[in-house]
Specification:
A five-stranded mixed beta sheet has the order 2-1-3-4-5. The protein is of the alpha+beta class. The longest helix is centred in the first third of the chain and has 15 residues. Strand 3, helix 3 and strand 4 form a beta-alpha-beta unit. The structure holds tetrahydrodeoxyuridine. Tetrahydrodeoxyuridine (THU) binds next to strand 1 and helix 2.
Length: 139
């Protein structure tokens, strides 16, 4: 990916963050998932008064994409912070989201945690979820 393409994906994550529903934590997250066919799927966190029913931004993006027939993915950009403020730090995906990523993505899947389009860090899924549990173990 070029710098421009990565910056574009980060912009999509920041745009997705605008729709976050986070009245309980006040922490809003946006994600932009790049599929193999070049399409980008946006996701945001959607909280619930029954806290455990809350959905993360990353999983929203994955479930949207998979439900539309996508099965291959190359990268995701994630941006999060307190509502109404620019991200103060990099927002890393939670453990459950890393597990969902591993269902569909290889170890080289690229994860960009971003403050803005010019300030981001890149990781590979294999770095953030080493020795993960996968479907091969139960077949
Ligand atoms: N959150 C995400 O959207 N993604 C993550 O990977 C970590 C946490 C959301 C869930 C909740 O709405 C808020 O951030 C605070 O935990």
């Amino acid at each position: 990916m070029t710098q421009e393409e990565i910056g574009g994906l980060v912009k999509e994550a920041l745009a997705a963050r605008v729709n976050a529903y986070a009245p309980y934590s006040g922490y809003t997250v946006g994600a932009a998932l790049l599929a193999g066919d070049g399409r980008i799927y946006r996701g945001c966190n959607v909280e619930n008064a029954s806290y455990g029913a809350t959905g993360c931004a990353e999983r929203t993006a994955f479930f949207k994409a998979v439900s539309e027939g996508e099965r291959t993915f190359s990268a995701i950009a994630i941006a999060g912070g307190m509502a109404g403020q620019a991200p103060a730090d990099y927002a890393f995906p939670c453990g459950i989201c890393r597990q969902v990523m591993s269902e569909f993505c290889d170890a080289d899947f690229r994860i960009f945690v971003a403050k803005d389009e010019a300030d981001y860090r890149e990781f590979r899924l294999g770095e953030l979820l080493p020795c993960g549990f996968g479907g091969a173990s139960i077949q």
